[in-house]
Design a protein that fits this description.
Number of helices: 16
Radius of gyration: 21 Å
Helix content: over 70%
Strand content: under 5%
Shape: globular
Number of strands: 0
Order of helices and strands: HHHHHHHHHHHHHHHH
Structural class: mainly alpha
Length: about 400
């Protein structure tokens, strides 16, 4: 039966809410350590640079999870996979909480980061459960939960650490993972879409990229916008902690809440994608990402401009992201986890590249140079979109001429 058949019920809103909540709770694990670096360094009498490796270790773990764990979602029953991922993550968080050394903390951060890709298993799971005419909205709602988890994690970590110390943050996170195990039990059972072995499944990810032109296009849009995300968020902390602003870590953490516009964009972009606007709205969202850096550049000395720029940046990036996912998942209903692996691995690597370049550019040319770098990536995306739309128009014109000739 077609998923657009009106006799097929729409996806239960409570089910969507469970997936959104679970995604947000788990992805937060990758960000708790960021505002705690100073406190952890004091505990272990280590340098901030050394303890900063804990954050890097979590990112490495997340990348490993994207590449090697998310594809398993097509091979096995997803609830079972999610349950074991959550239990392993909870164990890693508890070890982090009682870690006697920052090196052990970093090693466990790799495990926790790997398990934190639960959201990237849930998103294609949600796409599989949704009807075709509601898939964009469902993806947007689940991604809203994930984005709120990213935004609130730093603030929550700072508040808990201030009251009970940094170790309490990871204890609370472990408890939330056990709660999430109970949430996952309410999800419907999934049926594996392939009986291929693990190596064959990993190899098929490369074949999907080679075979699907739409996937390659959407990887390009996602990479170009998320690279700009890495450029901005890596260096804005230097700006806000510097002499121009002189903000505390807690105040900088609260500033990230301006990114809530991204969560709003996820819902709107998903609803519009269901109406067939995913390709057209991509150009708008990519352009918004580029334009945001004009305001961010002014924000070097004007906090209002900086705040508006952040809102536009996250709106553009997340709007592009949801538009991409809405077009990717319908390509192969039997390989949605692998499609997500191909897309998100490139997406994450692009963000990491943006972060590295941002640090080099900031200390070499200052904030204005960072904003110029950040604008270059989505500007290339706008050019790519214009080229794509010209190709679409030419194809439609050729089809019209062909039909007229047949008449």
């Amino acid at each position: 039966m077609s998923r657009t058949d009106t006799s097929t019920p729409r996806m239960d809103r409570r089910l969507v809410a469970v997936m959104a909540l679970a995604s947000g709770l788990v992805v937060a694990n990758s960000y708790y350590a960021q505002p705690l670096v100073g406190a952890i360094a004091d505990t272990f009498d280590a340098s901030t640079a050394e303890v900063g490796l804990v954050v890097t270790a979590g990112q490495i773990g997340y990348a490993l999870g994207l590449a090697f764990l998310v594809p398993v979602g097509d091979m096995v029953e997803r609830r079972t996979l999610l349950r074991w991922m959550l239990l392993a993550t909870a164990a890693g968080l508890l070890i982090m909480a009682w870690s006697p050394d920052w090196r052990i903390l970093a090693a466990c951060a790799v495990l926790v980061g790997t398990g934190s890709v639960v959201g990237q298993v849930l998103v294609p799971f949600a796409a599989s459960l949704a009807r075709d005419d509601e898939r964009g909205r469902v993806i947007g709602n689940v991604m809203t939960g994930l984005l709120l988890g990213v935004l609130l994690s730093r603030v929550v970590a700072g508040l808990i650490a201030e009251v009970a110390g940094w170790r309490a943050v990871f204890v609370c996170a472990a408890a939330l993972m056990l709660l999430t195990v109970l949430l996952i039990r309410t999800l419907p059972e999934s049926v594996p879409t392939t009986d291929a072995g693990y190596r064959a499944v990993l190899a098929s990810v490369i074949r999907l990229v080679s075979a699907e032109a739409v996937l390659r296009q959407r990887i390009a849009y996602g990479a170009l916008t998320y690279a700009s995300f890495g450029v901005f968020w890596t260096s804005v902390g230097f700006l806000l902690a510097g002499p121009g602003y002189g903000w505390s870590d807690a105040r900088i953490g609260m500033f990230t809440l301006f990114g809530v516009a991204g969560a709003l964009a996820a819902r709107v972009a998903g609803a519009l994608a269901d109406r067939g606007y995913a390709r057209r709205q991509t150009g708008f969202f990519v352009a918004v990402t580029a334009v945001s850096f004009l305001l961010l550049a002014v924000g070097e000395r004007h906090v209002v401009a900086l705040a508006i720029g952040v809102a536009l940046l996250d709106l553009g990036i997340q709007g592009t992201h949801i538009s991409n996912q809405s077009l990717i998942y319908p390509l192969r209903s039997d390989a949605r986890s692998r499609l997500n692996t191909a897309y998100m691995t490139c997406y994450f690597l692009a963000g990491s590249l943006g972060s590295v370049l941002s640090t080099l550019v900031y200390f070499g040319g200052g904030w204005k140079a960072v904003c110029m770098l950040g604008a270059v990536f989505p500007a290339c995306g706008v050019c790519l979109w214009i080229r794509e739309m010209r190709g679409v128009r030419r194809a439609r014109e050729c089809l019209r001429v062909e039909r007229c000739g047949n008449v």
